[in-house]
Amino acid sequence: MTEDAAGRVTVLGLGAMGSAIARTFVDRGYRTTVWNRTASRSAPLAGAGAAVAPTAAEAVAASPLVVLCLLDGAAVDAVLASVGAAAEGKVLVNLTSGSPAQARTNERWAHEHGAEYLDGKLMGDPPDIGKESVLVPISGSGAAWAAHEAALRELGGVAYHGPDAGAAAVEFNGQVAMGYEMLIGFLHVLRLVQAEGGDVAAFGARLAGSVAAYPPLLTAVAEAAASGEYPPDLGPLRVQAALMDDLIGHRESAGVEAVRMREVKDLMDRRIAGGHGEQGFSSLFELLGKG
Questions:
Q1: pLDDT tens figures, 23-49
Q2: For 80-103, what is each residue's pLDDT tens digit?
Q3: Contact, 1 vs 29, CB < 8 A?
């Protein structure tokens, strides 16, 4: 067992994800203390060797590294309020979902109470905690990260995003939002295929093959947005725009939502009117957030 693996860690919150985190630490040799508002959830971990604290404050006092994994920001606020002065000298790692603003507020609370703060997010399912397939963006105190990197890497594919406590939430919310944006679009397309009498399952299998070619395009579009140089990716906008009326008309004729297609057409028309018809789809980035 490494020196780090002989260390102490506290886990506050024993829902499915919190329990998986605590179990991972226990199984890998950490002296783990747990606390949960509903005490009965501690029993399986106690049986596995974890120490159970009767209060959140006592759990925090037991370890230099304290991991919070709770339902939401309101639960985090309530637990921190109950911990109070016990946080002094500790490193708090909040793995609860939340916004960048919430992360920065939590960091201020930690500093006011003499603690260091790291904010992290878990991109995976409880059974996979501890595997590299679980992405764990973390940001906040550089000193805290340096001191506890090895322990935190036990949880999965951890990546440190710098000293801004909100950076991990930016990464998480962006990646999760992209998934929902893509999937709701996919459902609308399946409805269109079904309305035309197509086999949605077979179409989905074919589309999966097409989507496999998207990673280089995503990288190129992001690089263009970062640089402000917009090559004709997907072809010049003046050519792409010619497709939009057909796409919109097809959807509306089948009674399928066309809001996103109309948004794309409006942005293309505005960009072309501004003299940028030779640029590509990535150049629409210039109009976003500008009315």
A1: 999 999 999 999 999 989 999 999 999
A2: 999 999 999 999 999 999 999 999
A3: yes
- What number of helices (H) and strands (E) belong to the chain? 11, 8
CATH 3.40.350.10 given to domain 4-170: no
Superfamily of domain 213-287: N-(1-d-carboxylethyl)-l-norvaline Dehydrogenase; domain 2 (1.10.1040.10)
Say if CB 171 and CB 158 are below 8 A apart: no
How far apart (Å, rounded) are the C-alpha atoms in residues 100 and 98? 7
pLDDT, tens digit (0-9, with 9 covering 90-100), for 111-133? 999 999 999 999 999 999 999 99
Tokens of 197: 């009498």
What burial class does residue 202 get, using C-beta atoms within 10 Å of its C-beta: 0-12 exposed, 13-18 middle, 19+ buried?
exposed
Strand pairing report for 116-120 and 135-140: antiparallel
